[in-house]
Design brief:
Blueprint: H1 9-22, E1 31-35, H2 42-53, E2 56-59, H3 66-76, H4 85-98, E3 103-106, H5 115-128, E4 132-136, H6 140-144, H7 148-151, E5 154-159, H8 165-175, E6 179-180, H9 182-191, H10 195-212, E7 216-217, H11 219-230
Parallel strand pairs: 1-4, 1-5, 2-3, 3-4, 6-7
Helix pairs in contact: 1-2, 3-4, 4-5, 8-9, 8-10, 9-11, 10-11
Length: 231
């Protein structure tokens, strides 16, 4: 399988969003929300952009607390976390004032039930004016509405959309060493496969192609062999 980062419409929209945040006019809030169905590559795009732009990327989990969130941010900054939450907060603020960087919080859905964690992100933004991008699932926008003081600071909101037929083809043939036929691409698109499923499908197709000396993957191969393996 080819190691290639393909710039879909969602990727291009994410790049535009980050550029708008970084280059926003003075006085314009610098927070953003990126949300959408699972499997569309939100985390992949964010980690790719972070790695290429020296951003700070942190992913929340089921057990993330306000204090552990601050600790993870400090660690990503390359510093040793202090003990008290107030010291951790000041550590983050001082770092970002001295060395401004975009802060990306993935899986923000885990933080939506805790007002304290949300308020910490708002306070970091207000103290440092650093761009902060929150990434969540399809209900993230709805769940964050209860925090008006936070959503009021969203100058950018991006909804990741499912891939078009053309984009599905670009992704599949851009990743695969074995060509997929047009009817196979159309079928894959109709199944609604997301990025992760496409990656698994491509991997399986290459194994099947090698085992059966196939020069291309057609509709019959996809329907008879690949669909059950990917789901």
């Amino acid at each position: 399988m080819k190691i290639e980062f393909i710039k879909t419409t969602n990727v291009k929209n994410f790049i535009t969003l980050t550029n708008n945040l970084i280059n926003r006019a003075k006085g314009v809030p610098g927070m953003a929300l990126v949300y959408g169905e699972p499997g569309l590559g939100k985390t992949r795009v964010a980690t790719w952009w972070s790695a290429n732009n020296d951003a700070i990327f942190v992913s929340a989990t089921q057990v993330t607390t306000p204090r552990s969130l601050l600790e993870e941010i400090v660690k990503e900054m390359g510093e040793v976390p202090l003990f008290r939450s107030s010291d951790l907060f000041n550590q983050v603020v001082q770092y970002l004032i001295k060395d401004p960087k975009v802060l990306i919080i993935d899986e923000v859905d885990y933080l939506t039930k805790d007002k304290c964690g949300i308020e910490i992100l708002r306070d970091i933004h207000d103290r440092t004016h650093t761009p902060i991008i929150l990434i969540g699932m399809r209900f993230a926008k709805r769940n964050l509405k209860r925090y008006a003081h936070l959503t009021d600071r969203f100058s950018e909101v991006l909804h990741f959309e499912p891939f078009s037929t053309d984009e599905t083809g670009i992704l599949v043939n851009g990743l695969s060493e074995v060509r997929f036929t047009d009817d196979a691409i159309k079928y894959i698109h109709q199944t609604g496969f997301g990025f992760r499923q496409i990656v698994k499908l491509v991997n399986k197709s290459e194994i099947l192609a090698e085992a059966n000396d196939l020069k291309e993957i057609d509709l019959k191969c996809v329907t008879n062999f690949l669909k059950k393996e990917v789901k």
